[in-house]
Each structure stands twice: as structure tokens, then as C-alpha cells.
Amino acid sequence: MRAAKLYKSMNLSIFTLVMIFLYIPILILIIFSFNDAKIIVGWRGFTLKYYAQLFQNETIKQAFWNTMLIAGLSTLISTAIGILTALGLENKSFSGRRGLMALIYTPLVIPDILMGVSLALLFNFTRVNTGMITVLIAHITFCISYTIIVVQSRLEGFDYSLVEAAMDLGAKPSAIFWKIKFPLMMPGIIAAALLAFTLSIDDFIITFFTSGRGFDTLPIYVEGTIRRGTITTINSLSTLMIGATLLLVVLTKRIRGSLFNL
Amino acid sequence: MEDIRIEHLSKDFGGFTAVDDVSLEIRSGELFSFLGPSGCGKTTLLRMIAGFEIPKTGRILIGNQDITELPPYQRQVNTIFQNYSLFPHMTLFDNVAFGLRIKRTAKMEIIEKVRYMLSLVKMEDQSSKYPDQISGGQKQRIAIARALINDPKVLLLDEPLAALDLKLRQHMLIELMNIHDAVGITFIYVTHDQGEAMSISDRVAVMSRGQIIQQGPPDDIYERPTSIFSAYFIGETNLISGEVTGIEDEYVQVKCDNGAGEFFEIDSTFHFHPNIGQKLTLSLRPEKIAVSRFKPRHQDDINILRGVIEDILYLGSHTQYIVRVGKLKFRVFSQHKRVYFDEKALDWEESVWLFWHDTDTWLIAEEVDENGRNQDFSTEAPYHRALKRSSPGSE
Ligand SMILES: Nc1ncnc2c1ncn2[C@@H]1O[C@H](COP(=O)(O)OP(=O)(O)O)[C@@H](O)[C@H]1O
Ligand SMILES: [Mg+2]
User: Fold this and answer.
1) Residues of A with Cβ-Cβ distance to B159 under 8 angstroms
2) CA B327, B333, B334 angle in degrees (round to 5)?
3) Chain B residue whose CA is closest to A256
């Protein structure tokens, strides 16, 4: 009894410690984004001036829009490809299926740096001008594997008798797809899109190798700024990004719950 | 006039014949059952009628229309699937409305019809729930409403009660019959449960290994089985092999071997003309045999055998006796009605008389084949052991 109790409380305290280590830095970051000081030296009073600076800084704004553009487009395209590929892979008699699956899984374990370098080499070799297009291509490339796998795992559990039931009730193949299959895939599609979006927003290494000069996303900008030593606007920027992410998660949960009962 | 005609229908799965040259006629408005053990091809036959499988040979007609090759969405046939297959992302209302929405029916009409269907299956107050919020029996009702709203000519039901518990099953069975009476369309009901098929159907087709063994009204199949398979599969029976030794007016004498080198004679009426010397099988329903320790008064049209009680199984409404006659074992059901009120219950190893009316012996023009086609059935009564109180004298 006592041993079990001890064991339980030990588990609990380890858990608490982990949570502290995970969340304390984020908390500090949020607090210090309102701190009226250029460097982290202690509390010097509440201010919103770094947020104001953020919104006046054209470079940051540009980097933000670049990030959103890349994330939005790569999410859209990689999710679409993911849906189509997953649907294609449903056909179990397709002979190249196993090989293709292996190709899809491999990028998940390839280090980002390798992917970045190889893409950079490819673009260099084919003499494509680096910039928005190359970054977009790179992001789509690393998102596809994830979107395929997420959508596919949703399709895996798909109850084919529902298709027969719909057919029995008079639905033609196109109606079956849009009224039964697609809605039931939706949770998988949303999860895939969300994953692609966060992967894209987050990416530094691959973007770094494929963006060239003159096309900065937020992570690239942040890295550059920190290298030069100013972290004040970075704190406020990060805080906003945390807020935006949380909002996104809550929103998708809501949408899923209310639209699909899933 | 919207009868269903099935002509020489066959279906293969990679060389394995699941449905083998089936021909059937199902009359409009009938409640018709396919009854047979699991794996005999009932579902495959049903799926060909629904349009999910294309037969290798044969035709399916509804009225004068050949529907053999029509896709499911063009047939006026609807199916209740074994696991109901309700759409999980739609409310019950939307599930039921699905067929009408596909046909682009007017909104008001949809609302009206869905309401009517939901009231038919007694689910009108739950229309905004989702399938995962209701019980198995309720899902069943919704599946029925969702199918019937399309005004099908035929409703196909594939083991619709298999997933329900016993009490609910009996209840739904009656409800299904009521719904059938209310809508008046043809129902084709698939089951491996002979009790279900017997109680619900106008007619039954008994299936085995992809073939129809016998078809007819339930009482016909029970009382007058034409094959060992139907005699054995529907209800319980004693099967005895014998050889015809005499024919006189409407009676036949059959000589049976008791397995211990002795022979006895059983009289029977007949429904086909046997020949002297013909080997055949007798089917004797256990409830038609009387068992008593007193020898019955001799009558012309009664069969009497002497045996020993080997086992007694108390089954509530009746008792099952296993009575040994030579090496044969007869299964006998005895209702708990006492004729003499001082009558003592029969005991293990007691000598008894078995007797039954000649007309209750049923002849089947098939031989029990020891190692061939009928090896699934032993002619011996299945031997259930009761808690045996050891009687003096036995080991
Ligand atoms: N799609 C299929 N592929 C291969 N064999 C099948 C298929 N469907 C059914 N079978 C076989 O056909 C036989 C009849 O099956 P089924 O019609 O489901 O029987 P029942 O419904 O009477 O239990 C079984 O032996 C089954 O294994
Ligand atoms: Mg079946």
C-alpha cells in the first residue's frame, strides 16, 4: 500500500517537473514580452511598446506574410495531394503499393539538414532562382508524406459497408464520395492540414537552404535578429504566435465537433 | 405481378461456388426466408438481388424487368445490412432522409415522409440524435425506416436480428411482421436461425452448400421434409435407415436394423411411391413419440418399440429422454402432463415403451451416407449429458 502510494506521488512529481521545464520558458517569454527592457535583466515595468514596434517593422510584416503565404499554399497543395494519394493507395491490388509506401515513409526519418541540402543542390543544378517558389516547393515536399499518412490512417478504418448502404439507397458514385466518404475523411483531412500548416510555419532548416537571399520567413528572420542580439520584438512576436496557434487548435476542434459529429 | 423470379443463378468466388444454380419464385408481398447454416451462400444470394454481386450465370427479374446487371442504385430494392451501416456523421433524421435527398425530393415532402417513417418504427422523438447515441435495437429501426422510405418493391434483410439480445430479438421479430403487414411489400429475410424463419415467414427456402434443398411454407418443411438435410436442420429429429419390405394400401413396412443385429419393423404412410427393397431414411420428430413404462394397448396404426432410458434432460417446458433401442438412440420430448396422478417419474436405465402413430413416421427417399454427403449429421441423437444421478446397478 505504502509503496504504491509512494510510487504514485513520485510519478506525479516527475510529471510536474517535466511540465514546469516545458512551460516555464514559454511563460517567461510571454511575461518578458511586456517587460520594458531591451535585454532580460529583470522586471522593469509593463509596456506594449515592443508590440507596437512589431507592427511598424516592415521586415517583420513582410516575413510574416511570407510565412503565411508559404504555409497556406503548401498546406493547400500538400493536403490535396495527400487526399488523392491516400485514395489511390486504397486500391490494395495496385502492384507498386508497397514500394510507394516505403517512399512515402522515408522522408519522415531523413534529417531536415539532408533534405535542405539536397533540395538546395537540386535548385542550384537546375538553375532555378531561389526565392518564394523554391521555398514553396521545398515545403510541399516535406509536408506531403505527413498529409498522405494522416489521411490514409483515417481511410484505413473506413467502413466500406457505408458505401454499399449509400449505393443501396440510390446514390451514384459521385454522390457517395461527396456525401459519405469525403465527410467521413474530413477529420483526417483537417488533421493533415493542421499538421502541414504547423510544419511549414515552424520550418527553419529546409527554408534556410532553399530561400536564398531576400525571401525571409519568420523563423529565418528570428534567427537573423537573435544573431544580431535584439530579442525584444522576438518575445512579442513569439507570444502572438503562441496565441494564434492556440486559437487555431480550439477553432478546428469546434468545427469538427459541430460539423461532423466526429 | 411484381413477383421476383430467380433463374439458374450461380456465383463463384475464385473457383469456389457460393451459389449453385438457384431458381426461385417469390410472390409479391410475401415474407420469404433463406434459411441455412452459416456459409451456405444466403448473403451472396441476397447481395446478387441487391446488386452488390454480379452472378456468373442466371437472371433475376422483378415483374418483367431483368435487373441482373443493374447497379444497386437503379434497383427498386433496399437492404437492411447486418451491422445496420447507419451513416455516423448524420443525424437519424438525415439518415432516413438520405434516399429522398438523393432523388432531390421537395423539402416539405421529405419532412413529411421522414416523420411518417420514424413513427412507423416508433423513433419519432429521437430524430436529432446521432447513430452512436442510440441502442442496437433502435439502430435497427432506423435502418428499416431509411430503407422503406424509398418505396422499394423488395426489402432485403440480412440476419437483421443477429446482433440483438434474445428478448429484443423476439420483440423485433413481431415488430418486423407488423411492419411487413403495414407496408405490404415483399420482404426477403436471411437467417441461420430456424426458429426465426419458421415463425416469421410465409415461405422458406432451405439452403445448403449454395443450393436450395427445399422450399415451402414453414409447416410444410417441418412436417414434410424432402431431404435428410431439411429434416435435420429444421427442428430436431430422429433419423433411422431402413429398407422397404412391404406396401399395403397407403402403408409401407420398413425394416430397420437396430445396430445390434436385430431388426424391427416400422409402419409408415408415404407421399412418394417406394419400391420393395428400396433403402431409405425415416424421420421421426421427438415430440411425436410417446414414452411410457406401460405397454400401450395394441392398435393397428401404431408403432411400438421397447427401449431403455439412457439419459434424461430436464428442459423446463418439456423433458428430453434419450432412449436406447438396440444400438440406436431415440430422442423423445415429453411434455409435463401427467395422465395418472400417481405416476412416478421415469428413471435412468428404466425399460420403457416408445410408441407413435404410423402417419407420424416420415419417409425420405435418401440414404444416410456414412462417409459422403451427409456426414455432417449423425443418425444418432446428439447426446447431451444431464447431471446424472447414478442409479443403482450402473457403474
Ligand atoms: N467476397 C468473397 N470472396 C470469397 N469468398 C466469399 C466471398 N463472399 C462469400 N464468400 C464465400 O462464399 C460462401 C458463402 O458465403 P455467404 O453467402 O456469406 O454465406 P452465408 O451468408 O450463408 O453465411 C462462404 O464460404 C464464403 O466464404
Ligand atoms: Mg451471411
Assistant:
1) none
2) 120
3) B89
Q: What b/e sequence results for A101-117 when a residue is b if at least 16 CB atoms lie within 10 Å of its CB, and e otherwise?
A: eeebeebeeeebeebbe
Is A165 in the B-facing interface, judged by CB distances under 8 Å?
yes
Say whether A170 and B88 touch across the interface (CB within 8 A).
Answer: no
Using a CB–CB cutoff of 8 Å, tell me whether A260 touches chain B: yes
Q: Going by C-beta distance under 8 Å and a sequence separation of 6 or more, which residues neighbour residue B169?
A: B161, B196
How high is the mean pLDDT of chain B?
88
Report all structural domains of chain B as residue ranges with CATH numbers, in order of start. 4-223 (3.40.50.300), 228-394 (2.40.50.100)
Mean pLDDT of A142-164: 92
Global confidence as pTM: 0.81
Which protein residue's CA is at the shortest distance from atom 9 of ligand 1? B44
CA-to-CA dists, residue B5 to B8, B49, B54, B155, B373, angstroms: 10, 10, 16, 15, 29
Q: What ipTM goes with this model? A: 0.80
Q: Assess A159–B contact: CB distance below 8 Å, yes or no.
A: yes
Which is higher by pLDDT, B393 or B299?
B299
- Which among B161, B17, B195 has a CA at the least distance from the CA of B80? B161
Tell me if B87 and A261 make a contact (CB, 8 A cut-off): no
Q: Which of A169, A171, A179 sits opposite B146 (nearest CB)?
A: A169
A141: left (phi over 0), alpha (psi -120 to 50) or beta: alpha
Angstrom distance (rounded) from CA B154 to CA B172: 19
The stretch B318-332 carries a mean pLDDT of 91
For position A123, which CATH number holds?
1.10.3720.10
User: What range does the domain containing A150 cover?
Assistant: 58-260
Q: How far is the CA of B18 from the centre of ligand 1 (A)?
A: 6
By the CB criterion, residues less than 5 angstroms from ion ligand 2 are B 43
What's B131's DSSP letter? G
CA distance B355 to B292: 9
Shortest alpha-carbon distance between residue B98 and chain A (Å): 7
Q: Is B58 exposed, middle or buried (0-12, 13-18, 19+ CB in 10 A)?
A: middle
